[in-house]
Amino acid sequence: MNSALIGKIEKARRYAEEPERAQLQSLHVRFRGDHDVYDVRFEDQHWSCTCHSFSALGLGTCSHIMALERLLAPMIPAEVPASGTQPLGSS
Hints:
By secondary structure, the chain is an alpha+beta fold. 33% of the residues lie in helices and 20% in strands. Strands 1-2-3 form a three-stranded antiparallel sheet. Strand 2 and strand 3 form a beta hairpin.
C-alpha cells in the first residue's frame, strides 16, 4: 500500500476518535422509522422532521431527532439546545 495513503488512514482513524473536531452546520438524513421513512434536517441550528409527531405536537422534536442527537452529540454545536429544552412556542 502507498505510504502516503497509510498516513492518511492513520490520521483519519485518529480524527474519528475525536468527534469534537467536527461540527455540524447542516445535515439531511432519510430516517427509517417504525411506520415510514422521514426526512430529518439540521439547518441554521434548528432541527426539523417530516413525521406527524414533529408537526402535530409542536414540541420542536420527535423520536427521530432525539435519536440523531444521541448519535451525533459530539458534533452538534454547543449553542444548540437539546430537544425538549426550548420553551414551547420558541423557535
